[in-house]
Give the backbone structure.
Amino acid sequence: MKYSEQFQVKPGSEVRLNKVNPDYTAEHTKKKSAVKQVEKLDRKLRELQYLLYAENKRSLLICLQALDAAGKDGTINHVLGSMNPQGARVHGFKAPTKEEAQHDFLWRVEQQVPKKGEVVIFNRSQYEDVLVVRVHKLIPKEVWKGRYELINDFEKNLFENGTHILKFFLHISPEEQLLRFRQRLDDPARHWKISENDYAERELWDDYISAYEEAIRKTSMKHAPWFIIPANNKWFRNLAVARIVAETLESLGMKFPEPTVNIKKIVRKYHHAELEEEKKIGKSKWKQLTTEAKRDTGSKKDGKSAPRDKRTKKSDRAILRGKEAQLSEARKTKEPEEAGKSH
Ligand code: AMP
Ligand code: MG
């Protein structure tokens, strides 16, 4: 079964977080058994994001929400780590600044949505404005109650403009949270992450869970679904999120844009010397030679010489020398013309 089906909250369905097992790891009993799948997924994600970027037609918005220490940072590091930074970014939402607080709650969010071709991850999101504000009674109930519909309208509008939205709730148990807080205390490199506020928030666990349940139920839509991810095991959390993102991008049927130039013409015009050579010695031999040439140059750096087929070594070198001479000849005849153009 696709994870994008399995973990999705169907629109309108009841959400009971205490019925979802945060220790769930599907068929995997240990991290080791999931590693291969995760590596494959990472490569897939990279390819798909490259395609999204090249296509430049639509975008992906990932909203991450969770209680403290559930692994938002780790998930971002993993998912974005497999992507090309050109075309993927993260934005975190903290308590609103003075300026942000002078606008409607979606004002700061609108400014951060992805443009075409882009993947954006929200570390916290528009949902804080129906979660933390509710739990801490920062605004009247009538105000946050009205926001579910505003969020739905906002996300519908994004979707109709080509933004695909995935919303993840990383689900951990209170015991796991306490354990992770403790691990932070034991690790000087993570002391900076500890705040007493985290312990104060922990006291409000049940209120947060109720707020999440209502928010998820009222805003999980076919075009902007919520996923509840069992997150007590970091490796399974990473696997599940990566798989859902990959499945979603795969389902879009993306295509590389048509070239804006006539490829055959370009090859004929600028690569005719190589083409001639290729014709002379045959395609497969040409491929073998250029691969070997590349390997030779690469191996020079570490001082080792690349393994070669001794029987063809001499003749290969001769052919390559011929090719180099031909290429430099071609360059010489082109250079005066191009130099003239740039001055
Ligand atoms: P962190 O994600 O640990 O850096 O913390 C960010 C803090 O900002 C969290 O305590 C959030 O609850 C808080 N925050 C984010 N958005 C809002 C908001 N709209 N209103 C109030 N607090 C917020
Ligand atoms: Mg925090």
Remarks:
- The chain is about 55% helix and 10% strand.
- The radius of gyration is 27 Å.
- The pocket of magnesium ion (ligand 2) is lined by residues 68, 198 (CB under 6 Å).
